[in-house]
Batch of 2 targets.
Target 1
Amino acid sequence: MKSGVVVLAGKPNTGKSTLLNYILKEKIAPVSSKPQTTRKRLKGIYTEERGQIVFIDSPGLHKPTHILGKYMVEEAIKNLYDGDVLLWIIDSSKNLTEEDYTIYERIKNIKKPKILAINKIDIVNPKRKELINELNNFNSIDKMIPISSTTGENVDILLDEIFNILPEGEYLYDPDLLTDSTEREIVGEIIREKILINTEEEIPYSVAVLIDDFKERENGKVYIKGIIYVEKESQKKILIGFKGNLIKKIGVESRIEIERFLGKSVFLELWVKVYKNWRKKEEAIRYLGYK
Ligand SMILES: Nc1nc2c(ncn2[C@@H]2O[C@H](COP(=O)(O)OP(=O)(O)O)[C@@H](O)[C@H]2O)c(=O)[nH]1
Ligand SMILES: [Mg+2]
């Protein structure tokens, strides 16, 4: 049997969390088209006949503009040095940017097998010439595999490749586990994802969700109270929406997904509160569980 740790690397929005959810066949990682959807390091545990792969999905490597961003990037960089295999993911539907090159510079000398997953081939021709030519520059990459995290194309080939590289070993985690995150953490991320999907501009970045209460009632229903923190009064107003319409929509979408995840019926209560400039405050970042 084989086992080991695969660290996902890549700039925001290249599809790291989507790939993890696809492989696990369960949505444990939040996904949206907004950068920085992933704020915390998350482990996804994949077990099958050949063995066990522990994936580490971390916040994307980007240029930080505030203290929270700085912690996220530091965490992502630290993660690069962990694990047995580095899996770098790029978005083939877009041109490579300076951020992709910065990531290559960071990983090229790390002494570990490196796989490049060229993602989103469902929306682009993988033979796109310019991209192929550019990828030839990345000569410390051991293997390049074009994939689609949404359709799953070539994900089996990627898994074959990872199992080929991994060392012989026993399970690192209980094979029934999909993640080491708690139900509370995942529920908080589901709510944050629904906010990200339903809001624009600075709101997605200014939001943090704290699960304040999580208990199973005698009737079998799970009662969950989530507090949504924003940085300004004006953001609170936008998030609540006209006659409370937006927060209601977010509540309904979150509840449906939480019920599917927990396999139980849920009563979800959401509160929006202002925590002034929390992303710039060390104690706030800690309180909200980001450090
Ligand atoms: N068409 C297409 N879209 C994808 C693919 N993988 C991810 N996406 C989309 O890209 C966006 C970012 O995905 P996400 O997994 O959150 O990226 P992350 O920031 O790297 O974790 C989301 O809107 C996804 O639905 C893919 O293979 N094909
Ligand atoms: Mg992500």
Target 2
Amino acid sequence: MTLERMDIIVHTAADMDAAKKQLACNEYDLCFTDMKLPDGDGLNLIKHIQLHYPNTPVAMITAHGNMEAAIAALKTGAYDFVSKPVDLQMLRNLVTTALKLKHGETSQVERRSRDTLLGESEQMRKIRNKIVKLARSQAPVYISGASGSGKELVARLIHDKGPRADTPFVPVNCGAVPQELMESEFFGHKKGSFTGANTDKAGLFQAADGGTLFLDEVADLPLHMQVKLLRAIQEKSIRPVGAQTEVPVDVRILSATHKNLSQLVEAGEFRQDLFYRINVIELRVPGLQERKDDIPQLADHFLTKIAQQAGLEKPRLSNEAREALLNYSFPGNVRELENILERAFTLCEDDTINKEDLQLPADTHNHNHDIPMDDQPLDSFLGDQEKEAIQKALEQSKYNKTAAAKLLGISFRQLRYRLKKLGID
Ligand SMILES: Nc1ncnc2c1ncn2[C@@H]1O[C@H](COP(=O)(O)OP(=O)(O)O)[C@@H](O)[C@H]1O
Ligand SMILES: [Mg+2]
């Protein structure tokens, strides 16, 4: 009845056999299936549709609280799931978004070119294919990979190529939100709920309503927020700080971190249940060192972009410089490549970037450090090294601490802590 009120033509099938027959005779924009069918398992129906009618999204109806079934369905390729008793507003949201898949397809011409994922390596091709598939689903995706490898870009593309493309994509760096403000940042607050709350304020979930919330550096979430976040994701509703009632929200969750989240789970620093919920599908973005073939294309792309922004002629890379880039290990990955070229662009003369302009740091990756064997205690030796690394990162990021922390692959809080410890002002 709800669907018919939305002017949707509905066919029903009493069992799997009937469903297969109907699928063979009609073209459907969306299919709902129960988990247990009289003559089989709903998961098999998902597989059947994926194989024969890949353009028809399937949503699984699961028993309330049966997260395992829901996740199994998503992993099998279900578009989304609804749990019983079905909340009609959630059902309407799901259907509206799913139907956009069909109508949105042709309008999805290449979006802004800055959002394209470059690289002709086998790994990047695979990732691009996977993005297209994942964009058609509502399943939570966990993107792993080193800092600067392109995780955020991948998340944006999953959003941009899917049915939520015209709705907000809201990224949040979980390590950069101060602890005290975290709950209010995520869920919003009511006026007067704490000192300084002078007006009602919407949180990130509300800002992302109808769209995608990207939890960047999700490993940095403190444990008490992990509990609240899990609840919000499972219930699809949130309670603003100081509010009496919950507000339903419709967001797709994407997350990323450069840390090894399963290790953190083992160490008890990240909740198993939240990990399980956000890591339904994992997508690993390889570091630049694993796909050196992509370096020339990326370098060319960044030089074009940098020159355009400066309104100047695009510089040429000398052969020696090109060679040096190919031999460098790029601990900061694509972001570091971009930074190096930006700096080289300002340093170079005669429109040619030479090896010296790149100012590549001596690669400590492959050979051992010269550890001084004098009487300097280990702690102070390490402290000096740390200081040097932090100072370099700060310089590179023009003293933007958030950016410096990213470069170093640590959270904003960790950087603040280390700055204090090392007495860097
Ligand atoms: N394959 C790629 N093609 C083009 N630009 C890329 C690619 N990968 C990363 N970038 C660019 O490199 C920078 C760092 O990427 P980002 O997604 O922020 O990395 P991460 O989130 O993994 O730290 C961004 O400016 C991004 O646009
Ligand atoms: Mg990032």
